[in-house]
Design goal:
Length: 373
């Protein structure tokens, strides 16, 4: 079971309305899908984070073709954590030398997803089971993310009608907009639904304390990334202590040590690794064990195409507790056209017994969005 080939596809889907966040704006929906093939012809799929910068997908694809692919071909694939660790070690010094540890980590995260998918397909088992899940855990809680800063009530109502029972609001704009949107969202979803906040690293510590105290009136489950991910722990602990809302973060942490330090400090109640940004599934499973030891809950971050969403669902199902998976509310043909329908029952999605990720991208159907292969 040796890797014989890696293929990469860059897609960009046009959208009618840009997706805004405090950290930046998406003017189209990009995706970078990869497929591993082993020496027996078995395949597995993964997805690289590529929302930012604007040329992120094309850049990562070039790195795959010119640097990572040649290192990958010929390596054994039967042990995904070992494969990931070996590639990370082989690329460590180069990533430092060229100042790109993030892009390389994102590529390795996708390769790890694909290696697990390949392994599960060969075993003819659903990925959630290969990762350690039990049948009772296949029903996964989800929340609708990406709400705001415009059209909050309308979008929330639509998502509630689709079966969502938890909703995450983009904040980090001007204080009046944030408060008005939080009020609109709470009115639209009612008091029985769950509300989360995501500031996308918008504030400093003093601002975060002030804003969160105001927003706490709407009973948020968590406030996500109120500070830049690299702010000192003292700033994070101050916001956790004084802001009045439990904190969540993790999508912009790089390396297991960063997660371990944040969890040990006690300021996070929810930890959010992203399978396409660092660690893949192998790294996220290790972070889940760390989280459990510090009374934190792992809720995978994902805002991309359908392959990464499927991997996040299987990860969450394998963990078996009552965390959430993020589902972007904004239109994205590269998510909807790959993941397929998402029937929900009271805020939960039930994974099937199909082998691997349970999906097979229809490349012909996506050809209108293809930029590079």
């Amino acid at each position: 079971m040796t890797i014989s080939r890696i293929d990469a596809w860059v897609f960009r889907a046009p959208i009618d309305r840009p997706v805004r966040a405090a950290v930046g704006t998406l003017r189209d929906r990009p995706a970078l899908f990869i497929r591993l093939t082993d020496d027996d012809g078995a395949t597995g799929w993964g997805e690289v984070f590529c929302n930012f910068p604007q040329v992120g997908a094309e850049h990562r694809a070039r790195l795959i073709d010119s640097v990572v692919g040649p290192l990958l071909v010929g390596r054994p694939a039967a042990d995904p954590p070992l494969l990931h660790a070996g590639l990370a070690a082989a690329l460590r010094r180069l990533a430092i030398q060229c100042g790109e540890p993030g892009p390389f980590a994102q590529i390795l995260g996708a390769i790890d997803q694909a290696a697990w998918d390949l392994l599960a397909r060969r075993r003819r088992l659903p990925l959630w089971r290969v990762l350690g899940g039990a049948s009772a855990s296949r029903s996964v809680r989800v929340y609708a993310s990406g709400l705001g800063p415009q059209g909050v009530a309308e979008m929330a109502g639509s998502k509630r009608d689709q079966g969502f029972r938890a909703f995450k609001l983009k904040v980090g704009f001007d204080p009046g907009t944030d408060l008005d949107n939080a009020r609109q969202l709470r009115d639209a979803i009612g008091n029985d639904a769950l509300l989360m906040l995501d500031a996308n690293q918008a504030w400093d510590a003093a601002q975060a304390v002030d804003r969160l105290r105001e927003l706490s009136a709407f009973a948020p489950v968590w406030a996500e990334e109120p500070l830049a991910a690299d702010e000192p722990l003292e700033a994070w602990t101050r916001v956790a202590r004084e802001g009045g809302i439990p904190l969540a973060a993790g999508e912009n942490m790089l390396g297991e040590a960063a997660f371990a330090e944040a969890l040990a400090s006690g300021h996070l109640r929810y930890i959010q690794p992203d399978v396409g940004k660092w660690g893949g599934l192998s790294g996220s499973l290790r972070i889940a064990r760390l989280a459990a030891a510090h009374d934190a809950t792992l809720c995978p971050h994902w805002l991309g195409g359908g392959i990464g969403l499927a991997a996040s669902m299987h990860l969450r199902a394998a963990l078996g507790d009552d965390g959430f998976v993020e589902v972007d509310s904004n239109p994205n043909p590269l998510r909807e056209g790959v993941f397929g329908p998402m029937p929900l029952r009271e805020g939960r999605y039930e994974l099937s017994d199909a082998s691997g990720l349970g999906i097979e991208p229809d490349l012909a159907a996506l050809s209108a969005f293809l930029i590079r292969h």
